[in-house]
Amino acid sequence: MAEVIIVPDAPTAGSIVADELVRLIRRRPDAVLGLATGSSPLPVYDALRERIEGVDVSRVRGFALDEYVGLDAAHPESYRSVITREVVEPLGLDPRLIRTPDGSLDGIATAGEEYEAAIAEAGGIDAQILGIGTDGHIGFNEPGSSFASRTRVKTLTRQTREDNARFFESIDDVPMHCITQGLGTILRARSLVLLAFGEGKADAVAGAIEGPVSASLPGSAIQLHEHVTVVVDEAAASRL
Ligand code: GLP
Fold first, then answer.
1. What is the pLDDT of residue 114?
2. Given pLDDT bands bounded at 50, 70 and 90, which one contains residue 48?
3. Which of 109, 155, 202, 219 could form a disulfide with 136, with the two C-beta atoms 3.0–4.6 Å apart?
């Protein structure tokens, strides 16, 4: 059963999760974080920035959930750039210890396997931060994704491309493909923290926590994990 924490606002959610992550890093200075992009985890990164002074983060490792395929790593909206800008630089993490899946066309044939091997070599992910898409996707595991899936290339749905078009000039600039940790990869993390805010996420949150465990709502995979915390505001919790 997931522990569900309903908070008045996103900054409160950020504080709760950041406190937990600071405890983890103090206990285990080489902790392995699973880093998510999107707007939902931003309050966590903001709150972490306020708490990280005096904490040794020099050995903290991190793995991003996903990456666009065929977008130059230097593009401002590649998840490599986003993670660098929003997490690595503000928190002073060592960029050499933070990985994102290789979304370059050259590397794509082997990128999934290599990413899985790197996660395994790091000893697995201690705490995986997750957002959820309006269609219930986690990472970029769109409806229909196998619960056993590992890091691999996927095609983005029209809905996700529309949702993410706000980061690009137009929807035509949103890549068609991505490489994402699989649901099976995510389920192997030692703990999961899912964040969601706003009415637009209410159906996805209700389905993930209370709906049938089904590939048609990939977020429902969290019900198979023993250590899950869901932190949501009242609007996102309104259909629970
Ligand atoms: C993208 C990311 C997901 C994220 C989702 C929701 O599709 N790949 O990891 O959970 O967006 O984003 P937001 O938190 O901005 O609503």
1. 98
2. very high
3. 219
Task: Work out the percent of the chain whose per-residue pLDDT is above 90.
Answer: 98
Please indicate whether residue 66 is annotated as part of the active site: yes
Largest CA distance in the chain: 45
pLDDT at residue 1, rounded to an integer: 73
| Bridge partners (DSSP) listed for residue 155 | 177
Residue 22 carries which side chain, given as an amino acid letter? V
Do β-strands 61-64 and 152-155 pair in parallel, antiparallel, or remain unpaired?
unpaired
pLDDT at position 142: 93
Q: What is the CATH number of domain 3-233?
A: 3.40.50.1360
- Out of 66, 83, 162, 163, mutate this one to test ligand 1's pocket (max ligand atoms within 8 Å of CB): namely 163
Q: Tell which one of 80, 140, 176, 179 to mutate to probe ligand 1, the residue whose CB is within 8 A of the most ligand atoms.
A: 140
Residue extents of the structural domains in the chain? 3-233
- Mean per-residue pLDDT of the chain: 97
Atom of ligand 1 nearest to the CA of 38: 15
Question: Within 10 A of 158 (CB to CB), how many other CB atoms are there?
Answer: 10
Element (H, E) at 4: strand 3-7
- pLDDT tens digits along 196-225: 999 999 999 999 999 999 999 999 999 999
Q: Is the CB of residue 64 less than 8 Å from the CB of residue 79?
A: yes
Strands 177-180, 127-130: pairing is: unpaired
Which spans in the chain are helix H?
A: 10-27, 42-51, 79-83, 89-91, 108-121, 158-164, 183-187, 202-210
